[in-house]
Amino acid sequence: MKTRKAANLHSWKSSVSLRIEELNERIVLSTVTPITVDTRALGAMNATLEKYAVTAAVQASFSGPLTGTIQGTYTTPQTSSNAGTKYTLQGTANLTNFGQATVTGSVTSVGIIQTGNAIGNLVISNSQGSAILSLTGPSQLSGATLPNTFTYKVISATGAFSSITTQGSLTMALDSLGHWSTNLNITSLNGVAQGTYSAVRSNPDFGTSYTLKGTINITGLGSYNLAGSVQSLGNVAVGQAQGQLVISNSLGSITLSITGPQQKGFAALPGTFSCSVVNATGVFSPATLVNSFQLTLNSNATFSATFGSATTPPPADSGYGSLVDSFYQKYLHREAEPAGRQVWIAALQKGLSAKLLTEYFLSSSEYLQLHGASQATYVRAIYTDILGRPGSEQEIATWVNVWNAGVGQKKVLQFILSSPEAASKNPTLRT
Fold it and tell me: Which of 384, 319, 331, 318 is nearest to 357 (CA)?
């Protein structure tokens, strides 16, 4: 087996070969997050993209965040105006500490709804692995144009990407010539720090200056050095304690300005600060960090601190297993196979919503085989499974007509799932 020279970035290990079958891809409206599968990264896929298989004989570990630049071209196929405009994307990425990768995906603007979010997905892959990112834009009014900022979350990953759990933001620019570009940024910094401090008060009218030096273990990134200082308030009526921190190692550095809450003069150093980015290099560049910083100074000249929500990862199941089991029973009328069950549990842990999981099951080839003998049969099954009642003949005929008008099966499903009646009868559709 070959080993990579950049040992500080990647480690390789053998593992048992896995073959995982997942339910089919879907077409989406602007109220849900689509997932597109890149066949080059995720294995063989049949012509209709009904199912895909993943075979892994080697796994790798990636020691940096998902940041970098992407550029490529886009197309806008003719779609219903009610569903918003869908932009199909393809291009190449240059990722920090990871190199070149191919990118496919799509984003869809807000359709004809009162308020909503533009949504989309990106599949980033190269010979070392792949990652699927869900994209969500800010809240917008009906029919709004595509925004230029999105939050992203890794919902599935393989190979060298498999350990990535970070999320962040991206800026996306599309021009009139069919080109697009994107920057992936770090937007949260979670970790635990510790070290020593010294305190100096050079003037009775000044506050106390605390010099910090230690290490920080950043979630998903590893160990970094931490150094800086913070000063409490002096002889002022009201003000804010302020300071600066530098986090660094061989992979990059980030300089943070920290600011405490409003306090009266000569107040003790606060325990919580807000953070803003002064400068960022390497794995941290570009960074649009928005975080909190909690600092505790101990009497023995040591300190402890946390950035953001540095919490223990959720347990292996976190209750998602029972949800997945219930979906297999309710919609497919069978027990879940172990491999498929674990795929969905992992996807839920990485941010897949229960609503999106519902769409996957109800759009799967297996569900269609059970209930899709005709358009009317399929719609009746959706009414039974989601609304808990039989649809009237007028309701069924209306949806069949909408289907045949060019909207299609999957969009009809999404319209029904997005209805107030569906949300009122299915708590999982509200998450």
Answer: 331
